[in-house]
Amino acid sequence: MRAIGLDYGSKTVGVAVSDPFGWTAQAVETITREKENHLRATLRRIEELVHIYEADRIILGLPLNMDDTAGERAMAARAFQETLEKKTGLPVFLWDERLTTAEAEEILKETGVPRAEWKTHVDKIAAVLILQDYLNAQNNR
User: Number of structural domains, the chain?
Assistant: First the structure.
C-alpha cells in the first residue's frame, strides 16, 4: 500500500507520500498555480506523482470548521475529490485536516526554519500530517 496525501488549498497543493509499507509519510513537494480554478497542470503533476510512486490511493485533507460544519473550503475539497477520482482512477479518501496548518507552522518554528521560508514548506508538511494521521488510523485498526 502506497498512498499520496494532499493538502489542497486555493493556490497550492502540498504533497506527501507514504513508504511502501504504509507506516510513515514523507514530504514531496508543493504544487502551485496562479488561479484557484486553473487545475490542469496541478492534476497532471498529481497523475505523474501517482505513477512515480505507484500509489494505490489518495488521501485528501478535508478542512472542516471547528464545529464540524463544512464551509466553502470543504466544499472545494469535495469537488476536487471527484475530479481526482475521475482523473486518476484511484479512490480518494477525505481526511479531517483541522489545525494541520497551525501544527505545520509550529513544527517549522520549533525546527528553526526562518519565517521567510515557511511558505515554501508549510503545505507539504501539512500534507505529511494529514497522511500520517490517516496511516496511523489504518495501522491501529
Answer: 1
